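Build the 3D complex.
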Amino acid sequence: MSKPEDLEKGSKLPQPTAWKSNEMLKRVKGRYRSEGRFKAMGFAAICAAIIALVLLVGSIFLTGIAGFSQTYVKLDIYFDPAVLEEIQTSSGEDLENAFISANYAKLTQDSLRKLFPEVKSRREVFRLFQFVSPGSRTQLQNIVREDPGVIGKTQSLWILAADDVDMFVKGKISRNVAQSDRKVSDLQIGWIDSLSADGRLVKRFNWRFFSSGDSREPELAGIWGATVGSFYTLLVTLIVAFPIGVLAAIYLEEFAPQNKITDIIEVNINNLAAVPSIVFGLLGLAIFLNVFQFPRSAPVVGGLTLALMTLPTIIIAARAAIKAVPPSIRDAATGLGASPNQVVFHHVLPLSMPGIMTGTIIGMAQALGETAPLLMIGMVAFVVDIPQGIFDASTALPVQIFLWADSPERAFVEKTSAAIIVLLAFLVTMNGLAIWLRQKFERRW
Amino acid sequence: MNIQAADTNITTDREPKMQARRVNVFYGDTHALKDVNLDIYADEVTALIGPSGCGKSTFLRCLNRMNDTVASCRVKGVMTLDNEDIYSKQVDVVQLRARVGMVFQKPNPFPKSIYDNVAYGPRIHGLARKGDELDEIVFTSLQKAGLWDEVKDRLDTSGTALSGGQQQRLCIARAIAVNPEVILMDEPCSALDPIATAKIEELIDELKGHYAIVIVTHSMQQAARVSQKTAFFHLGNLVEYGDTVEIFTNPQEPKTKDYITGRYG
Ligand SMILES: Nc1ncnc2c1ncn2[C@@H]1O[C@H](COP(=O)(O)OP(=O)(O)OP(=O)(O)O)[C@@H](O)[C@H]1O
Ligand SMILES: [Mg+2]
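Done.
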């Protein structure tokens, strides 16, 4: 069919490509354009992500930072012997009772009345008495306990102000709003102003927030109880999930025969990692509470439940780390006559440990932020006491955040954000540790 | 006793250190070695040559049962060490690998100190009771491997921090620290430059006589230089086996001739 000339043409050497032709220049330009477009889109995506992050973290910080300070009012407390009479007269067990039952509120009330003698009507006096926090009673009790000698004397003390006062001082309640629409009346504002003018009102760092448990009063509420609860919970999680996870990974990677059953186990571990956490909560409820009758609300149950949830993460991370150990190391050890056990425990495991640790820390960080399963097993209770062990009732940090976010008091808003900051600080620290570990022990073979 | 098979061209009255008789190896459905018969002598270097994929490494790895670690691998036939079947149930594979050491193609020191690299084998086999004994083993092994002078001042630095050639000699030191009877080397010089290669070849020459050595190599010159016996493999068959001088000067099989003259492979 083809003419001889065509054949001849075909067998000729190909013409050199015209790299400078118009067509080529157009192609090059087009390539640059599409590259530029792609870069711009990527940059925009990063910007959007950063803006979202900054807005989120920024707003939490702006609200939360106020939660770390608390308003105190300076009162001249007269430790009235008439009120504290029983403490002076009783001893032994009675003394303990006397310490507890003494009417400390009266002391602050007397001192407030002395400051504002013009307040007369019952309703107004009642309002005045609400100026300080109920926590002031414990404060005074501790002072008297430490030194009963103060009875009969007058002391200038910084007393914790009530949450409404605190909110007003921090500007969270505006005086420009109609009186009926705000929790602080004009009368109270007057008191606050006059105390401020006297230098009797200050904001101080709120140590109590880091040392006490939950409370119905926002100014008394702290996250230490929840932190300790989280600590115990994670401790149980780690103790259970780490060894099981690592051993499972070692078995699957190094010893398991390659067959259907192993494949099924593998697929299911990956599936397990994708199961919503609330399902693990239900499982924990059914097994640990209903079958094993473990105590409700206890870190041991929370820890076990979270261990179930963390296990797949640890197994997957550990398997990846074990897989990353080059076969040449295994060959070297095997070739010297190391038994399979020795190969694993002398070489593979130590070399994969940084990776396993990284995965474990990330799994722990996930568990620390997990709320839903803990709700299911009852760690959502209102717990004032700091838990003393894994069997005590307690909450956890994310649950505490959930509880406070749900509280009606205005002052809990900033406590919520403050608690979020603390939780984020823990999470960032843990993830930072994981990254540090990864970089420190990163190896090139 | 000598289980000499009729269909081999082995003519010697010496007792071989290791023997392979009618060895067939399968990876799943791949028939990687076909009826291989080969003798390895204690005071000689045996070179295995042949084109890529012909089964040299497979044969080598059968000699210390490294192929056990490959799930799909099946070995048929008889392989002996001092006339004892190494695939029999009575044989402890861990001890076998201590007696038949191995050096790999890519230097693979442990990411541990030079000292620990060499001391690892003696440690796991309990070859040294006291610290000085272990020091002694490490010293002699490194010296035999010709590495002592280069590393004596930094025994506690990582083995992976050495140069490629030094790493390979470290691996040889590590292998001889267990005091093996046979050393298998799978292309030990393929990742090294000519100078490092020359050093390893020198080393093989020195080690000859102390250990039976089997070396896989793609370099005809290397096989000619270091070995006394040469085996030529092709597509899983042992085509020709005999004295190195004979193989290189007067090959019997046309395939061998083609290969060593570079016309094939
Ligand atoms: N682990 C394995 N699984 C399946 N097949 C394998 C395996 N190892 C080797 N084989 C096959 O067995 C045959 C021989 O391989 P072997 O590694 O022994 O060749 P070789 O002679 O060492 O080649 P080279 O010179 O390239 O190293 C090849 O066909 C190879 O594909
Ligand atoms: Mg090979």
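The first strand of chain B starts at residue 18 and ends at 27.
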